[in-house]
Design brief:
Layout (H helix, E strand, L loop, with lengths): L3 H9 L16 E5 L7 E2 L8 E4 L2 E2 L21 E5 L2 H11 L6 E4 L10 H16 L3 E6 L5 H9 L4 E6 L5 H7 L6 H14 L2 E9 L7 H13 L4 E6 L4 H14 L2 H7 L5 E4 L3 E4 L3 H16 L4 E4 L27
Helix pairs in contact: 1-7, 2-3, 3-4, 7-10
Length: 336
């Protein structure tokens, strides 16, 4: 990491200057609640019946402008996290009752398991332990910083753990505007390196790419160079999708930079699809996404990195759409 920091400064010099974001408000309070439904549910990957999910909480402390969790009708606001009681114990009961155990379980795909709240991270670690003891892999998507005590749990069960790290920029100013309470990019990079050292599998997602903003060559080059420097050889790329509340949260940030019309215009002719796990979502036009991914791939080759396109946010790639991902009849009022 000693050679990483000067390199980042050089590549980021080509990025436009944006307004300094205001300091985010304090962390949300935690309220423990009872779960009224079964823990294990369908995973976010269509057609993967052996990959399930379990959510440990409702809400998220990171306050990302593009967050789909904040766009859900059940979202209680930024000031509270509803943490489910006795999740590990109840999960163990459900796993013992399974006729066939899942291959893997996404741990809290609807909220970050490593948000900056100790209670949430501790519950995530306990869930990892239960899954590992039943021979099931735990997949943990995060933009957060993993606490040392939790990191030791991931190391202990490293054969059955995968951490999925989201990273769309290494520009601290841009990251603070889009993802106010996530881990700073440099700490995420160090965490990736540390997880590699501990033998924990890491998957990196450069998502969501925001057209005209995080998919600029200068931003992408800096991200890819930084990832290559910590041993990342493959990334998954996916573009932003819009739903009404996502647009509402993102719009003030874009407006402050004078980029609202530029970014939203990119979606004007995009398809409105009913995607598994996403609900009705406005995507960028297919050709625009293809050009963007081609740029990512071309830049990644220079750093010895391969690029996989996210299937969940590109359901119209690769053949006819499944019925569950059928196009929705145009309804401009839904998003605009």
């Amino acid at each position: 990491m000693t050679t990483l920091l000067p390199t980042l400064g050089k590549n980021l010099s080509a990025l436009p200057l944006f307004p300094q974001p205001a300091a985010p408000a304090g962390l949300p309070a935690i309220e423990w609640i009872e779960r009224r439904t079964p823990l294990l549910g369908a995973g976010p990957l269509p057609g993967e019946d052996a990959i399930l999910s379990v959510n440990i909480a409702q809400g998220c402390a990171h306050r990302c402008a593009f967050c789909s969790t904040r766009a859900r009708s059940m979202y209680a606001g930024d000031d509270v996290i509803h943490l489910y009681r006795d999740t590990p114990e109840k999960l163990a009961v459900e796993l013992r009752a399974c006729r066939q155990l899942p291959r893997a379980v996404y741990v809290s795909p609807a909220t970050d398991p490593f948000m900056p709240l100790a209670e949430v991270q501790q519950e995530a670690a306990r869930v990892v332990e239960v899954l590992a003891e039943h021979g099931v892999e735990a997949w943990l998507p995060t933009r957060g910083l993993i606490r040392p005590s939790v990191l030791s749990v991931l190391e202990r069960y490293r054969q059955r753990v995968k951490v999925i790290v989201g990273l769309t920029t290494v520009n601290r100013q841009l990251q603070r505007a889009l993802e106010p309470l996530t881990a700073p990019p440099r700490l995420r990079l160090r965490q990736i390196a540390r997880l590699h050292e501990l033998g924990v599998r890491v998957q990196v997602e450069t998502a969501p790419l925001i057209p005209g903003l995080t998919d600029q060559r200068a931003n992408l080059s800096a991200v890819l160079e930084a990832l290559a420097s910590v041993g990342v050889g493959q990334v998954t790329a996916g573009y932003l999708f819009l739903r009404p509340a996502i647009r509402d949260h993102l719009l003030p940030v874009l407006t402050e930079w004078g980029m609202d019309e530029t970014v939203l215009a990119e979606f004007a002719d995009g398809p409105l699809l009913n995607c598994d796990g996403l609900g009705a979502a406005r995507l960028l036009p297919k050709a625009r996404r293809q050009r963007g991914y081609a740029t990512v791939m071309a830049l990644a080759v220079k750093h010895g990195i391969s690029v996989k396109v996210c299937g969940l946010t590109n359901p119209d790639f690769g053949g006819p759409l499944p019925k569950s991902m059928a196009a929705v009849a145009p309804r401009p009022a839904l998003l605009w």
